[in-house]
Design goal:
With 358 residues, the chain is an all-beta fold. The protein has one helix and 29 strands. The protein has an eight-stranded antiparallel sheet, with no helix packed on it. Strands 1, 2, 3, 19, 20 and 22 form a six-stranded mixed sheet that branches.
Amino acid sequence: MHGKLCRWTLLLTVLFCLNGEKIRATTFLQFQSTYLSDGWFQYQMHVVPDPFFTEQDVTTLTIGFTNQIDSVSATNSWSCTQSNNGYSNWEFTNGIPVPPYTETFLLRSSETSFRLANIANHDIQTAIVLVSLVLADFAPPIGGGSVYSQNIIGYAKMSCLIPCRPEEADGSPTNFVFTLKLLPDVEIKQLMQDANNKIIGVDFTWDSESTFVLQGSSDFNSWTNIAYLWSYPPETQWTTNQSLGDFGNFFRLALVATGHASNLPPLNPTAQPTSLVKTKTMISEPTTPRVTSFNVSHGNINVNVATQAGQATQVQAVDRHGTVLQTRQLRPQGSSVTATFGAASLPETVFFRASAVE
């Protein structure tokens, strides 16, 4: 079976068709770490437009960095606000730019050995970006449902090279690039075959009910629209009685609507479909309670919440699939309160939300 599938290629990322414009998803940023020499490390952060968000602000960069003795920012936009307890914290000083943009940082450690931080093993000695986001109306749900708070605050860990004691060095190369995706892409898991080994369908994963168009190509340049199809989370299998080989040997999915749209226009084989994204009900950020900021300290995530004195408040850590990971219930004495979460027990990407408890 694998031998018969080898000539077919799956395109694993989603393509967004918005107002006829093709947009590739869904990289948020790339983070490149390089060991130069004599304890000097270079970190370069390239932030690119992510179609899942109408606003995407990186507010703070924290790098787990042992024995820091010097630092340089390649631009005037950032400043090092703190360097202790094994961390170096950087924040924008002249306003946050609109992507795309690139920022470069040079840090020096008294240690001249290095290793690659392993975020899969909950390594908190790594790079962490704090983000403030506004969801696009077609983005996958964070927390479920169709009503979104306009603003979302969260963080994401990124593997990078960090200084270490000589006995901790792992032989990593001197350059490493990490690609950060805050929300998951649609993923075609496999092409489906009939008894005659003809390709007749796709098996894909997507976190919400949406409407896609399946496209095929033989050269990655011209794409043919094959059919509209609906997703049924978490995994969808779609088949047809026609061989997909008639449309090429490369396939991708384009998102055209959130929810199961039925009033779709005729599918012109070559024209790019216009987005039929339904507008989700947006609500303004409530006065209280709401997450205002957070910071990393001693392996903990301290989430600051604006609220009202005596108002029972619930703060939740939610993963990018909308699953609630941890909940803190607090009764503040004043107009703000801090909820503390253990960073080691949380995944690489986490969002925080606050609500009043009746």
